[in-house]
Amino acid sequence: MISYQSIEINEKKSYGQLLDSCCISDKHIDSMVVDFLGKYLGDLISKVIIEWPYYDQDYLSIYYIHYSKKFKNYPKYCYRLHFISRRGGTELIRKKLGKDAYAMTITLLLNSEGKKMGKTYIKPELLLKERAYLVRGEYNVHIDGMEELVDAFPWMMQDTDITTCAHIAVWSVLRYYGNRFVNYSCPTLGEIVENVHEEWGRKTPSVGLTPIQVSEILSRYGFYPIIRGGNKNKTDLLLEETFAYIESGIPIIAMCESKQHAFSVIGHGEIKKDILDNDEYVNKIREPETNIILHSKLINSIYVMDDNCFPYRRVDKYIDSESDVPYSMYEISYVVVPLYARMQLEYHEVYNRFIGLVKYGGMKWEGTRIVRIYLTSSDLLKNYAKSQGNMSSILKNIIIHLNMSKYVWCIDTSDVEEYKEGKVSGKVIIDATAGTKDGEPWLLMHDKGEVRFYDVLKDTNEIIKNINIEPYAEYAHNLDCIEVYNKEEMR
Fold this sequence. Notes:
This protein is an alpha+beta fold.
């Protein structure tokens, strides 16, 4: 029979009850679990519910390919912890964390010391200290005959014997895609381990994965991944490309050669728009020939899911001595990007074509322009245009009815004041299926007075001149904006 035991949480020390609970085997929990919970959750949690036994599909998948072959006896069951947030009584908190206040679930595994936290879903609102823009999905959790929902990104620790940090990073990305999109599957950890190419040596115990191995695994699950990096002199360009794919809502796998470590990147931190008031800094980050400032230049942090740290850790451009993450963005050596089959045109090709377009006068503007580059689906883009009350009716009608590829690259441009207000006055839409040597991948482009678009049925370029396009709201459907709330209200 499945049993449930509750523990009340009144302060950080209350999590110590988990160690003393007669319900939990001492092989499934250690002081690191308790320390993590106390440090990061504290008294934001009012209750922990212990579920036993719990048969976790990921643990069972590695049990049968590894633990079942050992001389010592290893049990098949796990424990699962459910966390109920402290409501605090305000409507604001209930709205942000959910009316049922279900905040988190962790599976406790029979792993080595310090590695016992298995599959975890936790709402980022509990952990963030500033506004962040994240990729996340909705996960179902069943407890005592009821279904709870957690908006989160998957996380777990590696077991150090069968799986490494790279296995976990791949698992988290594949679990996200498999849960959110019907054309992708949710492979277990064991399946991922088994899909490592055998030419690289035995699969268990694992000694780690290379970017090529990570790419091969993603390919086996229906992706067309690309590998970027490997040149220490071009780290800035690597980060620019990384930000473009993050802005596209695509979680990526990053690897640090200096740390021999891998993790998934799932979003970015606050956009420092106040930087644009500093003329000296603007002159440093603005491209002199085009007067362009890339949106990524105004962001100094990314958010990662790292199996060695608690979920949703912020990583800055430069190492922060106060951070519990021992690396910086500039230490990223490679990124592996899991692209869909129809996302054929890559970021650097899009960027180079856009710069050429600007230099040859294809887009007309004056002064500094902030540029944001991202991928999205044409369906979402059309829905966005339809909902924009302040978008020019001519432009809106063209975007809604224009034939487009399934996925498109978008380049949004704004002057400084428009950007600060979250508005756009120029846009370029590019066919993501265009070939690498296709010099004319444009589907649509507009500035404040002209719209040009490609009619695929007529195979002609159409131009509408002398119109007045007022700035309209920026596209913001790829990432969830996670606001920080006053945690004192929950106590």
